[in-house]
Amino acid sequence: MIAGIELGGTKTVVAIGTPEGKVVEEFRFPTTHPEETLAVAAEWLRARGTPGDICIAAFGPVGVVKGRENYGKILATPKAGWSDFSLTGALAEVFPEARYSIDTDVNAAALAEARIGAAAGLDDVAYITIGTGIGAGILSGGHLIHGSLHPETGHLKVPRHPEDTFKGVCPFHADCLEGLASGPAIAARWGKPADELPVGHPAWDMQAWYLAHGILSLLAIVSPEKVIVGGGVSQVAGLHEKINRLLVEIGAGYFPVLLTDGDYVVPPALGQEAGICGAFLLTGS
Amino acid sequence: MIAGIELGGTKTVVAIGTPEGKVVEEFRFPTTHPEETLAVAAEWLRARGTPGDICIAAFGPVGVVKGRENYGKILATPKAGWSDFSLTGALAEVFPEARYSIDTDVNAAALAEARIGAAAGLDDVAYITIGTGIGAGILSGGHLIHGSLHPETGHLKVPRHPEDTFKGVCPFHADCLEGLASGPAIAARWGKPADELPVGHPAWDMQAWYLAHGILSLLAIVSPEKVIVGGGVSQVAGLHEKINRLLVEIGAGYFPVLLTDGDYVVPPALGQEAGICGAFLLTGS
């Protein structure tokens, strides 16, 4: 039996599935305190058997490189009670024999979209999610990128849109990508939340401009074959097309991968299942 | 016998060495037309034996992913005669039995600095070179990053220095990192070449500012444990210290790897030997 857990900031998914990324049965519940959240997941699993593998896709920052002291732990976070909490440690008290795999929720989603989703068959894929924050998971040459921690693409500095005077909402960097293009940034700049801004609102041209510049940075550094843009703030009609048009314009003929059919940036194919599907694809990693 | 070839824009190095990156004997000569350049290298090698492995570190764009149609070829380049020239093809006419490995000169240099140089022992390292152009090689989790092509970090868009009105020299993007911080950009902005600008000239504060912003993008996307900055335009005294100070300032406490001893960005340890040493480290890849 293979277990998957997707630990999100507000909801957690626990499931049974296959190493090919297929969910057989799942249960969604609110993320609360760490001990309680992991106990709910463990209890749901124990009622179904004893998993040989437990694969975790977690919000960050989280230690995901085997052999490092912080492996399996949530690192310094403003989320009350979670800093330094060991996810694998808590689960190992219930399932001491299981093999554990862990990565970020966005890396898991990138892996799922690259194996069975919108970028199926590609080994160089970036997945960006735009919501309360901005995050990215990156598969490069078939390997998920971690580095000294893991990508923090939301905190990328991008040029400013020439007509944008909004100072940005990131408490660390003010006008990084997340500070200028996350859901809270859009709401603060335009005075209403993204889902109340109609398709033709100038907010979406500016949003496409910032996302295109962030994606150009990904292209210059890791050269993905395809970029998936998902998350709550990406669902307005026409946003992906706008980003593709701007990328061709600002890439200025330099990046061969952009000179295709305008489908470099695409929406996710797996929707809200990408994280949990990706957790199963981490089996044995 | 293991052969290494570093093919640069103006000079080529051919050498015999070890898979640990040690050069036993080398010969440097000017890069001319492709057939002639490769013939000089092959002749020098043939006088010394028949290499079982030939490892190439080449200027880009170049096809470096095994199995792709463009593997071993120089791709579209303004360098006369080189577009679509197969490096491995030309050498295989002389040494048909050899095993070939190929990567970019900057990836080879990154690998050398990570194995036997300024970042020895680390698996997540970026190497940036600043000269006529700007390029980067990136080792991530022990794997060199290629993606759909290979990193083109020089063409990263960065915010503009608030006091900089220079429009930039990149023929594609004007004010990308290379357009604002390469040797030709510095010469055009300040009216004299970088090596004539004294240590206290304001050019160097602006240069550090642009490099710090480019490195912050690398940090947000691939999270290197250490960044090596080399190349002709990086050799002015104090530049690396300036970049480190700025990175701590603009990182604003968010990136744990910056909260160390101010030695996140360092000069190369292998100098102009990094590329050829790195070629040998590609043996069997």
Automatic annotation (TrEMBL), chains A, B:
Q: Which is one GO molecular function term here?
A: fructokinase activity
What the entry lists under Pfam families is as follows: ROK (PF00480)
* Cofactor(s) needed for function: Mg(2+)
According to the UniProt entry, what is the EC number of this protein?
2.7.1.4
The UniProt entry, under InterPro entries, shows:
ATPase_NBD (IPR043129), Carb_Metab_Reg_Kinase/Isom (IPR051804), ROK (IPR000600), ROK_cs (IPR049874)
What is the reaction catalyzed? D-fructose + ATP = D-fructose 6-phosphate + ADP + H(+)
Q: Which UniProt keywords apply?
A: Magnesium, Metal-binding, Zinc
Keyword Metal-binding tagged = yes
Q: Which top EC class applies here?
A: transferase
Keyword rRNA processing among record annotations:
no
In which domain of life is the source organism classified?
Answer: Bacteria
Q: What is this protein called?
A: fructokinase
